[in-house]
């Protein structure tokens, strides 16, 4: 096998849970091959570089193989190789999100009725 549909490969490589979700991501512009938007039926070849956007993460992977079926994750990881630049960028962004989350104020409980009234009054949404 020298090529495979991109939606099927994304599904087999476990980037998306279903082929339908993989196809929607491709149609929605979340997947680029060598810098270009593609359609789900496009043939994917070994050595091509994919840019996959999933939530906050943007992955750049090089296609290393194909698989007709969805196999275990350990086998699916052999179908691609993430570029070093992509890995470092993704880890740096994850660390930045973690630091921002830790900096946000949190309470140890939900506000009670009196506190909710004070919050609404402070926000200017007090009705009475």
From TrEMBL:
The keyword Secreted does not apply. GO terms for molecular function: DNA binding; ribosomal large subunit binding; single-stranded RNA binding. Gene3D superfamilies: RNA-binding S4 domain. Residues 84-114 have a biased composition (Basic and acidic residues). InterPro entries: HSP15 (IPR025708), S4_RNA-bd (IPR002942), S4_RNA-bd_sf (IPR036986). Pfam families: S4. SMART domains: S4. PROSITE patterns: S4 (PS50889). One of its GO terms (biological process) is cellular response to heat. The keyword DNA-binding applies. Keywords: DNA-binding, RNA-binding. SUPFAM superfamilies: Alpha-L RNA-binding motif. Residues 4-70 form the RNA-binding S4 domain. Residues 72-128 are annotated as: Disordered. Belongs to the HSP15 family. This is Heat shock protein 15. It comes from Thioalkalivibrio denitrificans.
